[in-house]
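Kindly go through the entry underneath: sequence plus C-alpha cells. Please state briefly how this chain folds according to its C-alpha cells.
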Amino acid sequence: MYIYIESSSPRKLGEHASLLSPVLPANRTMCFEFWYYMFGDGSGRLFVFLQNTCTKMETQVFKEAGDKGAQWNKASVTIARDSVPNDYRIVLMADVGATYHGNTAVDDLIIHDGPCQGSHGAPIVG
C-alpha cells in the first residue's frame, strides 16, 4: 500500500496533502528515506520540511517537482544533528499541479539513526 495525491477533478492548483511524523528528538543525526512516484504533467511538487515543535517554523530539506516518468524513485535525506535546535516533526507535503493529468505517491517511509548511505532525489542542503 502507498499514499498519494492525484490531480484529477475536483482538485485545484495549489491544493496539498501533508503527512507528519511523530515528534523526533533534537541533537541526533537521522536518516529519512522514502520512495516517490510523480507521473503526468499535472504532478505538482513534493517537499520534506523539518517542523520545530516549539516555534512551528519549518525548514525545507527536500524538493522535487513535475513529471518524473512512470517509475518509483528513492529519496534519502540526512537530517544533521544541528538542523533543528528543538524536537521536531518531519512533514512530507505534496501539492497539485496545473493540469488534471498527474499523480504523486509515496511509499516505504523509513526513519533511522545515523546519516543516510548515499543520496538520492533532490535534497536541499541547509
Remarks:
- DSSP finds no helices and eight strands in the chain.
- Residues 76 and 118 are 8 Å apart (CA to CA).
